[in-house]
Amino acid sequence: MGKLDANKKQKETSLLDTAFNLFTTKGLNKTSISEIVSNAGVAKGTFYLYFKDKYDLRNRLISHKSSQLFKQAISQMKSSDMQHSFEGDIIFVIDNIINQLTENKATLNFISKNLSWGVFKNALTTKTNEKDVDFADVYNMIIENAPNTVKDPEIMVFMIIELVSSTCYSAILYSEPCDIGTLKPYLYHNIKHILHDHIDY
Amino acid sequence: MGKLDANKKQKETSLLDTAFNLFTTKGLNKTSISEIVSNAGVAKGTFYLYFKDKYDLRNRLISHKSSQLFKQAISQMKSSDMQHSFEGDIIFVIDNIINQLTENKATLNFISKNLSWGVFKNALTTKTNEKDVDFADVYNMIIENAPNTVKDPEIMVFMIIELVSSTCYSAILYSEPCDIGTLKPYLYHNIKHILHDHIDY
Amino acid sequence: MGKLDANKKQKETSLLDTAFNLFTTKGLNKTSISEIVSNAGVAKGTFYLYFKDKYDLRNRLISHKSSQLFKQAISQMKSSDMQHSFEGDIIFVIDNIINQLTENKATLNFISKNLSWGVFKNALTTKTNEKDVDFADVYNMIIENAPNTVKDPEIMVFMIIELVSSTCYSAILYSEPCDIGTLKPYLYHNIKHILHDHIDY
Amino acid sequence: MGKLDANKKQKETSLLDTAFNLFTTKGLNKTSISEIVSNAGVAKGTFYLYFKDKYDLRNRLISHKSSQLFKQAISQMKSSDMQHSFEGDIIFVIDNIINQLTENKATLNFISKNLSWGVFKNALTTKTNEKDVDFADVYNMIIENAPNTVKDPEIMVFMIIELVSSTCYSAILYSEPCDIGTLKPYLYHNIKHILHDHIDY
DNA sequence: TATGAATGAGATTTCATTCAT
DNA sequence: AATGAATGAAATCTCATTCAT
Question: What architecture is domain A54-198?
Answer without folding.
Answer: Orthogonal Bundle (1.10)
